[in-house]
Design goal:
Number of helices: 3
Strand content: 35-45%
Oligomer: single chain
Structural class: mainly beta
Number of strands: 27
Distance between the termini: 29 Å
CATH topology: Neuraminidase
CATH architecture: 6 Propeller
Helix content: 10-25%
Number of domains: 1
Length: about 375
């Protein structure tokens, strides 16, 4: 759901312009019923203050990650930078700043720490993929990504990452969009592996199609050995496909959970929330987006240091994650208790090899915080 804000920014621009090798043979499992034990996620600490030192005042968290040393990275879109903090919450350094000069960004869309240690920030308005050394030195724009951006990147092996990429072309007077989820090297916008592709006609009067067929069509994650997990954001099916470093399918599995219909009030609140966010970004008028009457079964995914896949359910208001091994076995459920109601759907969860980070798009305290959480008993 968080990605709609980024979509709005891109839509406005368009409107103005008119584990490792040796995986086994693919195994397909029938969806299984949820019978796993539920464990709690515990709040450990937080980063972010309402007033005070500007290094700790967060405008809007768009992404989070960890450095190779385990420090915390936060992409703050309004501040146009990535801030680094120790695990204890102490400010270390800043990557990037607002502007159009060397090492500066205007509207950063995504961020990650590549496996080679560099920090990558995507900003199509200032040229594409900005690379920074672990010490904060700007290394230049390594990939020219302007009108056809790569979005929402996750790190893979070496200097590669996985992202979604849209290209636009006109055929017989009709505009078409080709949406791709692929693996990219940090110095190119052409995928070295394509996992999913969808081409469809686009009408500027109907942004719902663009969002549902591209930006909201799927969710993915990857590990630092080059394995990738991909799932369709579907209201009816909960199905995940795993690809090895060469792009070959090594596992397919699903889970049998019920569909959940949104209430009329939830649909209204969802539309109002995103319209407000759009206006805060400078949008004029009303976004022509119609929320789906049902909730997605899969919201997001991440991989921890034990090669466990964490899958956030989109059907449950309290942040709830199914945890699987790489063979598709359902190990347990992890839940962040105490969060209920529609606002629970606006929480984001990031899982990587250094831990679990969460934040809310609609902060309950009225200002942005990043929370460090851990699984009870680990």
């Amino acid at each position: 759901m968080k990605y709609l804000l980024t979509c709005i920014s891109i839509i406005l621009v368009l409107a103005a312009a008119a584990c490792g090798n040796g995986r086994p043979e693919p195994a397909v499992d029938e969806p299984v019923e949820d019978t796993s034990v539920t464990l709690e996620l515990l709040f450990v600490d937080s980063i972010g203050v309402e007033l005070g030192d500007s290094n700790y005042v967060l405008g809007s968290i768009e992404a989070s990650s960890h450095t190779a040393d385990g420090n915390i990275l936060i992409l703050d879109r309004p501040a146009c930078c990535v801030r680094e903090f120790t695990i204890e919450g102490e400010f270390v350094r800043q990557y990037g700043r607002r502007g159009t000069g060397p090492g500066e960004v205007v509207n950063p869309l995504s961020m990650t720490r590549l496996t080679n240690g560099n920090i990558a920030i995507l900003d199509m308005q200032t040229g594409g993929l900005h690379a920074f050394s672990p010490e904060g030195e700007w290394l230049g724009i390594t990939a020219d990504i302007v009108n056809e951006p790569i979005l929402w990147i996750t790190p893979a092996e070496s200097n590669t990452y996985v992202g979604t990429h849209n290209t636009f072309d006109i055929e017989d007077g009709q505009m078409f969009v080709t949406a791709v989820v692929g693996k990219y090297e940090s110095d190119s916008k052409e995928p070295v592996i394509t996992y999913w592709e969808n081409r469809f006609p686009f009408d500027f009067m109907d942004f719902t199609v663009l969002i549902n067929e591209s930006y909201f069509a799927n969710v993915f994650t990857s590990d630092r050995e080059g394995n990738v997990f991909l799932a369709q954001r579907d209201t009816e099916e909960y199905q995940i496909t795993g690809y090895d470093v060469n792009g070959e399918i090594f596992v397919e599995f699903g889970l049998d959970i019920p569909m959940v219909e949104k209430s009329e009030q939830e649909i209204i609140e969802e539309a109002e929330f995103w319209n407000t966010r759009a206006r805060n970004m400078g949008a004029t008028g009303q976004l022509n987006y119609l929320p789906d009457p049902f909730r997605w079964k899969i919201h997001s995914m991440g991989i921890d240091d034990q090669q466990r896949l964490w899958v956030r359910r989109g059907t449950i208001e309290t942040p709830t994650l199914d945890v699987f091994d790489y063979e598709g076995n359902h190990l347990f459920i992890a839940e962040l208790p105490g969060i209920t109601g529609y606002s629970g759907l606006l929480w984001e969860v990031h899982v990587d090899e250094f831990g679990i980070l969460v934040w809310s798009l609609d902060p309950p305290d009225g200002y942005q915080k990043l929370y460090i959480v851990e699984l009870a008993g680990e």
